[in-house]
Structure formats: structure tokens, C-alpha cells
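Human: If only I could read C-alpha cells as easily as an amino acid sequence. Underneath my words sits a plain record pairing an amino acid chain with its C-alpha cells. Take your time, and here it is.
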Amino acid sequence: MIWKITQLDVVPTESDFDNVIVTAHWECIGLENVYSARVYGTVSLPAPSNDFTPYNELTLDEVLQWVWANGVDKDVTETNVTERINQQINPPVKSMPLPWTDEIKALFEEAE
């Protein structure tokens, strides 16, 4: 799975801190051969504590840890992406040609 942070919303100043993240926009992408699926969303982050990291020093891993710690279940999200890919590989519902068309008649004649 590929996890990304696509946008960070900040308030310019909160308490004694500058550029405080209030919302993280995230996405989880799964790829299998020619199939792909993604889940995306946003999560609100709590006010900073004493271990505040300045905006320009943040890492992707650090922000993802905040996302997962604040309501985004990593395992459930990845399972959701996997299920979406599996539904593309083995669709639970298919569209068939209309039975009165030559296309469907040819399919059934070939099967006989």
C-alpha cells in the first residue's frame, strides 16, 4: 500500500507556535497488476503539545503517525483498498449484452 499526505491545512499561529497543522488530507493507494484502488479522507489534528515539531521539519512518516493516531484505522483502510481491487478482479455484478442482440445470441451459440 502507498500512503500519501496530499495537503496540510494550518493556522498561522496557535499558542506560541507558528504554522500549526489542524487538518491532514491523506490517501491510501493499492496497486495489483492493472488494477488500482484508493481511499482518501481528512483528519482533524489536536492542538500541539510541548513536543511541537516546526512545519519545515515535519516528515511524511511523522504526519502519517498522527493520522493513524487520530481516527484513521490503517489496517481497516488497507483492507478496504484490497477489497476494492478484488471486486475489480472478480466483479460481484457484471453487465451483459441485452439478450435480444446479435452479440448475445452469438455468445450462446458458441457455447452450444
